[in-house]
Amino acid sequence: MAESDLRRVRVLVIGGGPSGLAAATALADSGQVVVVEREQWAGGIPRHSDHTGYGLRDLRRVMRGPAYAETWRSRALDAGVELLESTMATEWAGDRTVRLTSPRGRTTITADAVVLATGARERPRTARRIPGDRPPGVLTTGQLQNLVHLQHASVGNRAVVVGAELVSWSAALTLREAGCRTVAMTTVHEKSESYSAFRLAGRAALRAPVLTRTEVVRIDGRERVESVLVRDLDTGAERALACDTVVMTGDWIPDHELARSGGLDLDAGTLGPSVDAALRTSAPGVFAVGNLLHPVDTADVAALDGLHVAPAVLEWFATGSTRSGVPLTAAAPLRWIAPQQVDPRGAGPARDRLLTWCDAFVSLPVVEIHQGGALVTRRRLPWPAAPGRVFRIPANVLDGVDPAGPPVEVSLAGRSSPDAGLLVRTARQVGRTHQ
Length: 435
Description:
This protein is of the alpha/beta class. The protein has 3 domains: 3-121 and 253-323, FAD/NAD(P)-binding domain, CATH 3.50.50; 124-250, FAD/NAD(P)-binding domain (3-Layer(bba) Sandwich), CATH 3.50.50.60; 328-433, no CATH class. The chain has helices at residues 18-27, 65-78, 125-128, 141-150, 166-177, 196-206, 257-261, 299-319, 420-433, and strands at residues 6-14, 33-36, 52-54, 63-64, 82-84, 88-94, 97-102, 105-116, 120-122, 138-140, 158-162, 181-186, 210-211, 214-221, 225-232, 238-242, 245-248, 252-254, 286-288, 326-330, 334-338, 341-342, 353-358, 366-371, 374-380, 390-394, 408-413. The strands form 7 sheets. Strands 1, 2, 5, 6, 7, 8 and 19 form a 7-stranded mixed sheet that branches. It has a 5-stranded parallel sheet with strand order 10-17-11-12-13. The chain has a 5-stranded mixed sheet with strand order 22-20-27-24-25, with no helix packed on it. Helix 1 packs parallel to helix 2 and helix 5 runs parallel beside helix 6.
């Protein structure tokens, strides 16, 4: 490789969504910072999610998605960050060395620190193993919003949305803007997974019926989707819903290919890199932020991850510090916990919250912390746990943990839904199938 094809920078951020742009902006004063973004413009998912609700936690104001994305992009540029857009990080070429490919050609960058911010994606129809025909008209939320907001394309007249979590209502809003009616939303749970405020407002504004305890078992159509067959999980009854569009929402998986090919330790629950509270991965000088770690959270929380990682990167420059802390594991009905290591004596995780994913509705959750089989903490929280959204636990529940002791298990007790056991088993089986 020619010498001109080699570059060295202080920080290389891979992924130009909110978390990556926030990290780059916060680190801009440390030296040359480069952000690699595979899309034409940095900004991530909010760039083509043209509805309000962005920016509350990080920017302290509520914005529409494209404006929010452009705000972080502009902040990075104003701070002196170099954006390499339309550029793919294709492979590792050594420690903290990455090969890049773009329309401008190929190059290799070596960095003193690398921040992975590659985000997450929804599982498409193929990964969900829904049988039937393979007609056009089956999309994920990201594909739908890209078609509507960026390409201004038509998407059909009648849609079925698979899922009923927050992103599902976002898909329904996009469908309405495109002139496509949502004839039904489906969820395997006994109620919609989204927050009540969104659920009630969505039903009132969109008049989209939510079919609970329902799964899609087949998609039919030739030149275009014609119908989906749905099954009631309680009665086994099946019926066909006429539609020309199907949107697969939720069921997130991190974009972890680069982390995996780099040999980073992956967490079996999140499927993303395993990190400590400072967001250090198992590879020295390599950090990870945002929805790559905990699929999926809101864009502003992902951006706060980017801000949170900056002190750890600076500490790496100064001392060469590596991942540390007591290992954390999650017990059912919790599917995963992030971060996976915490040192009670050191700095806490972002926003001083442990992030978890619960596979059951628990209306009165009690967090239990066990270390070496002994109960360390038992605390009731005033907010419910539910599938389809991140359940946040104050990190100070770990205050009684022995920093030099054995691994810590985090679990939930409380009043769960009657079908919680079935849902947990089903979710874990799906996770193992599609890793």
